[in-house]
């Protein structure tokens, strides 16, 4: 087959519209610690840890070496009736980082797969314990739970759903928790909004608890613009789900591994769900990998109670892949040996003050923060939603700073090895550049 004479044509890029990309193709060539190097040789301060993922900083030697060593020793092991020591070791290590009781680990290759796996486990569990009528799933508006059919069904993003037909049936959505009127410019967790969890009671009243299998929410929604959980909200969800026998899943693909404090947001906030989904920071994004931590009673329920002798017929060719497991172990070692979560936590208040210093700058209508995350919301341009966000993204990149624009919200989530000087640089640059866009 003859290709058109365009080296950028064949790669159908995820999410990005190829046409827009080709207008000003920006490519990354290498990375080290807090920085990327662009293909034109410029240093770009990484304000997004890649995509909420490179928490220990880029191309860290111990992770690189672990991957190289394993690649030369055991490239792959099939998952049927066989295992390999690295996957077992990583699962055990990961279990020790999870909240009490969530000590059974299922490996996947991405956040999307973790979400679909978690939903399947919840359904299999309900069935295994004789609650087979519980098939409904509850997600949340403005939830991002990946792009599998399960994830987009429970997720609450119109663009992710509207091309793809009926999706899963029997799905309801809780309202999201962001409210400009009550919560604009709140530092940290808003006081207003805990009561929004009561909407779950309304859904239960509508359908009957005996029809509902699971609720899935992100403790802090990242991809839809940093929605910080109101005080008491997650606690209330926990209370209601427990009361009605509903499995509670926290999608921690972004929040796990130090992003909001400790190893999980659940642990940091003191609310323990039944299942936690993870990915990204698990391997510092060096090799794709996700994981699902499952509470012992759910695991045992599925394994012991499967009605037809099946434990959980689900998995991936690459579940627990040796290279990913090696990268995961080296990453967890690094988080621990360098005290990366503690280091980041020691910067929380400096970070909060810095990001909120942007209040009053042109077009900024809200600022939200949690852990080492910030969402800076710009008023939409009359020419369309997302235009201002994209303009600022381009300006920042061209001036040596990578940010993420999600609509008109600029999301920041730098590697957790950052220092105060990086925060100053990031915020200083945004302060200056936000004044220069239309
Ligand atoms: N869940 C959440 C909360 C996410 O933020 C993401 C990705 N940003 C996903 C799931 C999907 O992860 P992946 O892109 O690795 O499939």
From TrEMBL:
Gene Ontology MF, one: pyridoxal phosphate binding
Pfam families for this protein: Aminotran_3
Keyword vocabulary terms for this entry: Aminotransferase, Pyridoxal phosphate, Transferase
GO BP annotations, alphabetical order: biotin biosynthetic process
Matching InterPro entries: Aminotrans_3, Aminotrans_3_PPA_site, PyrdxlP-dep_Trfase, PyrdxlP-dep_Trfase_major, PyrdxlP-dep_Trfase_small
Record has Glycoprotein as a keyword: no
Cofactor field: pyridoxal 5'-phosphate
Annotated family: Belongs to the class-III pyridoxal-phosphate-dependent aminotransferase family.
Protein's recorded name: Aspartate aminotransferase family protein
